[in-house]
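Problem 12. The chain below contains 156 residues. Write out its predicted structure in token notation.
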Amino acid sequence: MDKYTWVAEGSSYVLSDVLAALLDAQLDRLDAIQARRAAVVARYRDGLAGWARARGVRLHPELPDRTPNHHIFYVRYPDGRRRDEALLRLHARGVKATFHYVPLHSSPHGRRVAGSQVELPVTDRVAATLLRLPLHPLLTDEEVERVVAAVRETGA
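Solution.
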């Protein structure tokens, strides 16, 4: 079982004192944190655009009428097999990429609530093909370049 799989009703929204203190410190640096995340996203886009076009991989879209917070950056592979191969190759290179989510309707609790007959093919396709790249404000330029190089080297 992974941390994204819904197994029972309910959620935990309790914020510990330590996490609250971290959040308070981060809010004081919000502009700098968002600027760094935006810079990482810009480098991912720049470094992966041609590679993605040549392989039918879709980059996280830019929506000019929106102001993103850059909390994630993902690529979408044409099929789940290529995404899974890329994920394994990235992990072998020490890049902590991950899938994004397990669709709720296919999780153990979702099947109990909605029944096993629910079919959401678009949701299933997106979940099977989406790969998230590391994105946080402490990534150095060298680490970002290493991620870009590793993605390009996956050959997907």
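Discussion. The longest strand covers residues 74-76. Students who got a different answer should revisit the alignment rule from Section 12.3.
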